Amino acid sequence: MPHPFPANDRFAYPEPDDGRDLRLDFLRGLIMIYVIIVHMEYYSLLSMFAWGRLGLVSSAEGFVSLSGLVLGLVCQRRLAREGMQATFRKLWQRSWQLYKAHVVVILSIALLGLIPFLDLFELTHWWVPTHRDQAYALYPPPGTHWLELLKQAVLLRIGPHQYQIIGLYVILIAVAPIAVYALHKGKTRWLLGASWALYALNAWLHLRPSGARFEYAFPLLTWQLIFFHGMALGWHREKVLPLITRIPAIPLAAAGMALFFVFIALNAPHPLFWNGPTLSLIPAETFHSLYGNWFQKTPLGLGRLLNNLALFIIAYYLLSRYWRIAHKGLGWLVIPLGQASLYVFTVHIYVILLVSNTPLPGYDSLWINTLLHVGAILLIWWMVKQRVLFGIIPR
């Protein structure tokens, strides 16, 4: 493949020879940092920019779509090397591995709840952000028979809300062989058409076929859209992704869209974890109407989909053009986190538990909370670098 940049562009990403694309690891690492910040709901210098300041997006969309992209890329190479049967088998093994990890996380939190001095509220309840008084229990009440608790855990109907998206990922990987088969047979349009049909159907019927808890935040028939589109993009990576750097109009259009979405986000009437100036050019009633019709997270509004696409194009373009700068500045931190994203997702649950059982969040201090966020990120990074429990926790 010809290099998309001039030979004298010393900052550009060196095109891989069918090896690992570190740009994708870099992006996944940024998303994992985003996950840690938003799941530790403290007002800090980091959270100020993580809650709706860069557009009307969340870390969840990036995690699901990039996971699909990487899976599509990996499956294409594995199928060529090992065949379809081995590819399918490894997908189902991976799904089973993550399912077991999910159940263990759920049950471990339940067991830790038996320790009298531990406060598990952060993990066992979901509440309206900044309003802990409006909390909803995610675990059965104390005294529930252990068989009932085990049943609910096996069915993924309980568990920390910070980990629920892994249940979605478990099922998506389990059904991924359908996408692999379609992509291998050259039926990409059929796959994407069926994906959009399911998305449209669920916008109308609001189905939750798995019955798992994650369906309330990440309905399977809706969120499959970005996963399978990610898989298709990963499968056709060599044809599609270079267009971002070869056709200047693509990143320019993405930048224009992203700025438009940032403008809308800055007009939010009640921004979370933000103490800076806001805009009031869009009336509150109009903003709520726009958000409700186009940008809601759970049903994946079309505006939110466009916002995520625009940010991906911009990020991929900048990493492609200025890779050496980005790699030198942040690569040491974000690439290891991106390469072990599922490990990070699991470990951060217990870091939240650790931090919430110290008196530090109670000070409600901008500087203490900033140190908590930075400390949690660096602690998890250190654990990745030291490969702590790598033989047990999926990566």
Question: Any overview of this molecule?
Answer:
This protein has 395 residues and is mostly helical. The protein has one domain (22-385). Helix content is 63%, strand content 3%. It contains 16 helices and two strands. The protein has helices spanning 22-39, 59-82, 84-112, 121-124, 146-154, 165-184, 188-205, 220-235, 237-240, 242-246, 249-265, 284-295, 302-321, 323-339, 341-356, 366-385, and strands spanning 125-128, 131-137. The protein has a two-stranded antiparallel ribbon. A hairpin with a 2-residue loop joins strand 1 and strand 2. Helix 2 runs antiparallel to helix 3, helix 3 runs antiparallel to helix 6 and helix 11 crosses helix 13 (302-321). The protein is globular and about 60 Å long. The relative contact order is 0.17.
In terms of quaternary structure, the protein is: single chain
Distance between the termini: 31 Å
- Strand fraction equals under 5%
Give me the Rg, rounded.
Answer: 21 Å
User: What characteristic shape results from the CA principal axes?
Assistant: globular
Helix/strand structural class: mainly alpha
Provide the number of structural domains.
1
What is the mean pLDDT?
A: 93
Number of strands: 2
- How is the biggest beta sheet arranged? 2 strands, antiparallel
Note the total helix count.
Answer: 16
